[in-house]
Amino acid sequence: MNPRASANRLIWNERALADREAILEFIARDNPLAALELDEHFETEAELARRNPLLYRPGRRRGTRELVAHPNYVMVYRPTKKAGGYIVEMLRVLHAAQRWP
Q1: Which of 53, 63, 64, 71 could potentially form a cystine with 59 if both were Cys, beta carbons 3.0 to 4.6 Å apart?
Q2: Residue 2: per-residue pLDDT
Q3: DSSP state of 92
Q4: Would you give the DSSP letter of residue 59?
């Protein structure tokens, strides 16, 4: 584990939160339990990115990285090095079929 991981911060921007909410609302219509489980999975994956900001593949936009949170969902984030660690900003949560950028 990265010894500086505890100094890293995770933030969700408004767009990523809106993406996440829309995905979960859509899934919850048919299966509320699946929506809760997916939300927990998003949290777990975001925490892994916070701990290891450079672990996942470089993103399609410069300065971003992308993690496949689920076969159907990609989380796009920007790790920014700051004194004492990284700020990991979640930018988007996208369905894998969505065009990005």
Answers
A1: 64
A2: 55
A3: E
A4: P
∠ CA 22-28-29, nearest 5°, is 100
Task: State the CB neighbour count (10 A cutoff) for residue 25.
Answer: 10
Euclidean distance between CA atoms 74 and 66, whole angstroms: 7
Contact (CB, 8 A) for 8 and 88:
yes
Q: How far apart are CA 81 and CA 34, in angstroms?
A: 35
Give the distance from CA 58 to its chain's centroid. Answer: 13
For residue 57, the number of C-alpha atoms closer than 13 Å in the C-beta half-sphere is 9
Say which DSSP state 58 is in.
Answer: E
Q: Structural domains in the chain?
A: 7-95 (3.30.2310.20)
Reference 10, options 86, 73, 95, 99; nearest CA is 86
